[in-house]
């Protein structure tokens, strides 16, 4: 029995008791150095419909092709996401999976130290007593890994 418990303990990730995070919608993760915000076909269709644009219109205005993938555009000098305005996401309810799952990304969950490093950038981490349960963290991580 004790051996089994040891195995379970070993398999448990460091964040098994949940993590303290609540998004303040500060917009910090929508800016910074150059990067990509990947979008799927379904997300493009939903965002275009929301903005009452055809897919072609939406693509010309907001998208770029990177290899075989499609990313939202970003400002050429500030590197702000094309949908960031006055530090707010203009399509928050329809933001892509990549945005929804932040900060539960693999690189931030590798260790407690990586999570604390992410907290230097994201003010929603360790902000108050809001705890994201383990099941939710895993769900977000799985979505991001498949993205
Ligand atoms: S940096 Fe963190 S708190 Fe700010 S918008 Fe992004 S996820 Fe939310
Ligand atoms: S789509 Fe919205 S949440 Fe995602 S990077 Fe752009 S502004 Fe930020």
- Uncertain stretches: 1-8
Largest sheet: 2 strands, antiparallel
Structural class: alpha+beta
Number of domains: 1
Report the radius of gyration as a whole number of Å. Answer: 18 Å
Number of strands: 6
Description:
- By secondary structure, the protein is an alpha+beta fold.
- Helices cover 39% and strands 11% of the residues.
- It is built from seven helices and six strands, in the order αβααββββαααβα.
- A hairpin with a 2-residue loop joins β4 and β5 (88-89).
- The longest helix is centred in the last third of the chain and has 13 residues, at 134-146.
- Residues 30, 37, 72, 81, 83-84, 89, 91, 95-96, 99 line the site of one iron/sulfur cluster (SF4).
List strands and helices in order, with pairings.
Blueprint lengths: L1 H10 L7 E2 L20 H10 L4 H8 E4 L2 E4 L11 E2 L2 E2 L7 H5 L4 H4 L2 H8 L11 E2 L1 H13 L1
Antiparallel strand pairs: 1-6, 2-3, 4-5
Helix pairs in contact: 2-3
The chain binds iron/sulfur cluster (2 copies).
One iron/sulfur cluster binds next to loops.
Q: Summarize this, please?
A:
39% of the residues lie in helices and 11% in strands.
Notable features of this structure?
alpha+beta, 147 residues, 39% helix, disordered N terminus, 6 strands, 11% strand, binds iron/sulfur cluster, globular, two-stranded antiparallel sheet
